[in-house]
Write a structure and sequence with these properties.
Order of helices and strands: EEEEEEEEHHHHHEE
Number of helices: 5
Pfam family, one: cNMP_binding
CATH architecture of the largest domain: Sandwich
Helix content: 25-40%
Protein name: Crp/Fnr family transcriptional regulator
Radius of gyration: 19 Å
Number of strands: 10
Low-confidence stretches: none
Strand order of the largest sheet: 1-8-3-6
Domain Cyclic nucleotide-binding: 1-117
Organism: OCS116 cluster bacterium
Strand content: 25-35%
Structural class: alpha+beta
Largest sheet: 4 strands, antiparallel
GO molecular function: DNA-binding transcription factor activity
CATH topology of the largest domain: Jelly Rolls
Length: 190
């Protein structure tokens, strides 16, 4: 089923929120109230360890949902901080849980969404495990990860933007990529 679960949501169940860079959407141990869809920008999910160390759990990018686990938890298990100016949708937790219980079509659609997201996370983990930057970049592009801009693409695949620029240059020199414009690349078809 490829139906989007968003189509089943009442407009009253969602709210638009704007955050500025550095703003917190929620803090670790805050009571849960919603899951989120990131329309524009990046959100970083950070957990604080017992000794105060910060553990980066996830970078959410435009077009992704996040804090899905909050549907089944009383408190957020991490902080969510805007890495840049952000626009997002909040989906009321109680409403979503009610729809999951009462609306089989919605339940199937949101389950399919969660399954696709798990597959995407696994694909990213696989890509992150590749040591060489050029191979990681090429694998990410083959897997269909888009390159809106170099810095956000680098963050998606766990590289610095400098390593990404070097890797892209190497792939162009190897004939695997074609540079179409400044910061724009396409796979070469053989």
């Amino acid at each position: 089923m490829t139906e989007n679960f968003f189509t089943h949501l009442s407009p009253a169940a969602k709210k638009t929120k704007i955050l500025s860079k550095g703003d917190f959407l929620f803090r670790q141990n805050d009571p849960t109230f919603a899951m989120f869809f990131l329309q524009k920008g990046q959100i970083q999910l950070i957990r604080h360890g017992q000794d105060g160390e910060q553990i980066i759990l996830h970078h959410a990018h435009s077009g992704e949902t996040f804090a899905e686990a909050s549907l089944f938890s009383d408190h957020y298990h991490c902080d969510a901080v805007a890495l840049e100016n952000v626009k997002l949708q909040l989906y009321d937790k109680r409403y979503i849980l009610q729809q999951m219980q009462q609306n089989p079509t919605f339940s199937m659609a949101i389950s399919a969404h969660f399954s696709r997201q798990i597959q995407a996370y696994r694909r990213r983990l696989e890509i992150h495990s590749i040591r060489r930057a050029d191979q990681r970049i090429f694998s990410a592009l083959l897997a269909g990860l888009t390159m809106d801009d170099i810095k956000s693409f680098a963050a998606k695949i766990g590289l610095t933007h400098e390593a990404t620029y070097r890797g892209l240059a190497k792939l162009v020199s190897q004939g695997k990529l074609h540079k179409t414009a400044r910061g724009k690349y396409s796979l070469r078809c053989e």
